[in-house]
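Re: weekly structure request thread

Next one in the queue (200 aa):
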Amino acid sequence: MEILLRNDFTAHYGLPVSTTATISVNTNDVYFEIEDDAHREIQIHALAGSGMAAYQNINGYDVTIINYDKFITGLPSLFQNGIKRCDLIVHTANQNYFLLNELKDRKPKSKVRNKSISQLLASLTMIMNVPAIITFANLHAVRQCCFFNKQSMAPPLISATTAFNRLSTAVTTGLRMPNPSIEAFGFEFWEYSGNQVYRL
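Done, posted below.
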């Protein structure tokens, strides 16, 4: 996928081949957390609670994590200025999973959620305009856009303070939410918050 971004994506949009350094990392750890640090670099953590998105990888899949935000930011300013972009593209070598990730560590408000959804949709729209990326993405069995917020969301229909942190305890693997715009590309939209973990 990194090569497709550097070559096919840039060619599709009439840009020079990207030479932005170190836009991807790989892991096959059985548990890892991803952090998008203050310098827009990807950090992988083994310690629970250290990152913004938590992944359980019990099968030891080879996982590639691409810093899509850094890739876009490294493109010519006339192209990338004002473009909404998600943080990461995550995919497995066995073509089981192809995921877009937006990572937050903010108080769960509808404004934060809506902005994250718009970043995911804009990124999905942009990459799925590239024929080679469409082909690559569609090889994967599971295609999802995932919004991770490290801070927990209150359970639906419960506003009591004492219940605030229960959703991430009751539902440990995230929630699929309807989003026709994302689904039109053959992807699902999922939300994760607090201690919820994505299980590969």
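The CA atoms of residues 34 and 44 lie 5 Å apart. The first strand starts at residue 24 and ends at 27.
Next request, please.
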